Amino acid sequence: MEIHAYSELYIESAQNILGHMFDYAINEVGLEPNEFANRFVVSPISKEFEKGNPTYVAGKTGPEIAKLVLTGSGYSKRFPDEVMYIDRSPEYWAGWSLAYYQWLRNYHFMHILKAAPFSKILEMYSIYHEMDINQFVDRLDDILNTFYPQTPLRRYREIAGLSQSELSSISGVPLRQIQLFEQRQRDIRKAQSITVLMLSKALGCSMEDLM
């Protein structure tokens, strides 16, 4: 079972929009990559984007969203004209790839960019832009797993004050399975829905929280 952030019908549009958003903000407005990314992740717009609000993942252009983010974060300079290039810039690719990863993993943008700042994603362009997107996904998974050594399951279990065996007893999920999830030897995103549901009920969180 893998829960994506929103309907697959919107992902192509969302990738294109986020790519153009970063391209415009960095290459036309002239902001530093991480400065704009930081403005974006604290904006209410990022929360709407990551849950697939059609207004943002399909209803506006990338530059339009960039302007909303900047205006909402106190930027007051005049915006340059929007220029759409045939060739895709590294900034476009980085935004395009980030949108796909966020959709696929159903993580918050802030969670992703805290571990892998936008400048770091940009550095991946030369190696990954001609590869299959799944190669980029695998690399970003490695970065996030290193930055966040604890799995969400372990984090919620410890917050609840439960041992692995206690969680097994309460949830009905075998102890060995819980151990494998926490050791990342088994991917909880690929577990049966009922297993994740039982764990989430025992821990008082949503199924998505454990992904």
From TrEMBL:
Coiled-coil boundaries: none
Signal peptide positions on this chain: none
Domain HTH cro/C1-type, residue spans: 153-210
PROSITE patterns: HTH_CROC1
Domain of life: Bacteria
SMART domains to which the protein is assigned, alphabetical: HTH_XRE (SM00530)
Single GO MF descriptor: DNA binding
CDD domains: HTH_XRE (cd00093)
InterPro entries, A to Z: Cro/C1-type_HTH (IPR001387), Lambda_DNA-bd_dom_sf (IPR010982)
Name of this chain's protein: Helix-turn-helix
